[in-house]
Design brief:
Chain lengths: 85, 475
């Protein structure tokens, strides 16, 4: 996969988790949600975990990924946390 | 006694006589487009806002972002409730949910604890069916779900897409849950559709049977319980109610029949209405009202005398005190002691009949009412129809009904709607304050209040014969 495609996929995953903050998905489950191949998603998800954008629970095929919502002191609007970032 | 919690759906609590049983698993099923998701989210949203019960929505197919957007149309800000830790819209697969439910300290337990969850919606049960290999495993899954949610005392709605085409097949899930609610979309008139909700089952709870129409409003689902009509304020509230003698009828009528109301008793030829009439009339007589009987070929003085004796009313005593009168259409022998109080109207034309009643009954009732006495009347409309004709009834009965109302006279008019044309039946129904129908269907007799001054209707009640007064029980 090209670097630009990787970035696009990274944005897609981040956007998905930010919009659905209580989604808990396996890589396989996410591939159905996003219509992307699991093998393309796995390295992206690991990258997002390393950046603390999402969290990983468990290991292997059953590992769950979910959004690590940033805590912003003073944020009170719907998008305050994200906009403030 | 079962503890109930409001369903959060206006009107539904009335159908459920208070709300959902707390901690119960309930299936909410319906075809696509019936509003299952909306009802589920309304149950959670209003549960938080009105009852302070945090909730969890688990979606397998629909993305939360779609739900956040869609529900804003009803003014529900789901994200705000999530930020306040009162709501979670979890999006995961059925396999992950089951796995996490069984895991000690797993995701499911953590979320339930985190928000102090009291209500849950799972959307949808069908997804478990697709993700399990055999029917046996599917059943096991449903048991697991039910038991886990019960363990946490969560009031739960399981959404189910109604996919089975054969209505005689009862899905397995219906047996294991405490309640089943079905939403339907049905054709109404030529170009309209109506949305209906029916509670098929609610273990340990009383329910209002039948289909109830609901509407999707700006504030979500609004249900109008069936048999709700506008209260008739034309009857003077100051006039006393007198029990019908039948507790189930009294319940619908707010304690009994108000003085000055006109009730039609619509009965077909196979239905036995004698006990009903005897109960209605005897209760008023025993409460001190005077009585007037317009007799029929089947209901003679003797038959009324016999019937009312069983209800502790001795007609001869009332006749002696000039508190009971009879209008006789047939040349039948009059029992001894009753002669002076029988007005024979046989062989009279309509005008003579009208004049005779005015001249003989008018002063009696008029004077008595001046003394503050009340009257009730049994009026066999079938006889008047056959003897005097439709035009006479339509003129005379409406006049009588209007006078009765203003004078506080209560009329129970017996009539067989099936033998009338549409115009006459509609006219009589309009003229009356209440309609009580009784009919025989198969091996059972039913009684139903289809119109009442209180604006309420009853469900069709089964008639059971019993040994003691009033000799029938309505179930």
């Amino acid at each position: 996969m090209k670097k630009t495609n990787q970035l696009a996929l990274q944005t897609e995953c981040t956007w998905f988790f930010q919009q659905n903050p209580f989604a808990y998905e396996t890589a396989k489950g996410l591939s159905v949600r996003l219509g992307r191949k699991t093998e393309h998603l796995l390295p992206i998800l690991e990258e997002l975990v390393s950046l603390s954008i999402i969290e990983k629970i468990g290991d292997g095929e059953g590992a769950l990924f979910h959004y690590n919502e940033p805590v912003i002191i003073g944020g009170n609007g719907e998008d305050a946390t994200w906009n403030s970032v | 006694m079962t503890e109930l919690t409001s369903s959060g759906i206006p009107g539904l609590d009335k159908v459920l006589f208070g709300g959902f049983p707390k901690g119960s698993p309930i299936i909410l099923e319906g075809a696509p487009g019936t509003g299952k998701t909306t009802l589920g989210l309304q149950f959670l949203y209003n549960g938080i806002i009105e009852q302070g019960e945090p909730g969890l929505y688990i979606t397998f197919e629909e993305l939360p972002e779609q739900l956040y957007r869609d529900m804003k149309a009803f003014g529900w800000d789901l994200r705000a409730l999530e930020r306040q830790n009162q709501l979670r819209i979890l999006c995961l697969s059925p396999e992950v949910l089951l796995e996490e439910m069984m895991e000690p300290g797993g995701l499911f337990e953590r979320v339930v604890e985190e928000i102090g969850c009291k209500r849950i919606v799972i959307d949808s049960l069908n997804m478990f069916q697709y993700s399990t290999e055999t029917e046996g495993k599917h059943r096991q899954t449903i048991y697991l779900l039910r038991n886990t949610l019960r363990k946490f005392s969560l009031t739960s709605l399981f959404i189910r897409e109604q996919t089975y085409l054969d209505p005689t097949i009862i899905p397995f899930g219906h047996y294991v849950v405490d309640g089943v609610i079905r939403l339907s979309l049905q054709k109404q008139y030529e170009n309209y559709r109506k949305r209906t909700l029916e509670v098929l089952k609610m273990r340990g709870c009383k329910i209002m049977e039948g289909e109830h129409i609901y509407r999707l409003t700006d504030n979500g689902i609004h249900l109008i319980p069936a048999r709700s009509m506008v209260e008739d304020f034309s009857i003077n509230d100051q006039l006393t109610r007198i029990s019908t003698g039948l507790p189930r009828l009294d319940q619908v009528l707010g304690g009994g029949v108000k003085g000055g109301s006109v009730f039609l008793l619509d009965t077909n030829s196979r239905a036995n209405y004698r006990h009903l009439i005897a109960s209605l009339m005897s209760n008023r007589i025993l409460a001190g009202e005077n009585a007037l009987f317009l007799l029929s070929s089947l209901a003679s003085i003797e038959s009324f005398d016999h019937m009312l004796k069983r209800f502790d009313v001795r007609l001869e005593d009332w006749v002696k005190d000039n508190k009971a009168y009879f209008i006789e259409y047939f040349n039948r022998p009059v029992p001894s002691g009753f002669e002076s109080n029988v007005i024979n109207v046989s062989d009279l034309d309509n005008k003579q009949y009208y004049d005779k009643l005015r001249s003989e009954l008018g002063p009696v009732i008029g004077e008595s009412m001046k003394r503050g006495e009340k009257w009730c009347m049994f009026y066999d409309l079938n006889t008047v129809f056959s003897e005097r004709g439709k035009d006479f009834v339509m003129k005379f009965f409406s006049e009588e009904a209007a006078k009765a109302r203003s004078a506080g006279l209560t009329i129970f008019a017996l009539c067989n709607f099936a033998e009338l044309d549409y115009e006459a039946a509609a006219f009589l129904e309009r003229t009356s304050n209440g309609v009580i129908r009784t009919w025989v269907d198969g091996n059972y007799q039913y009684i139903q209040i289809t119109k009442s001054p209180e604006g309420r209707m009853s469900e069709p009640l089964l008639v059971e014969n019993i040994e003691n007064r009033p000799f029938i029980r309505l179930v």
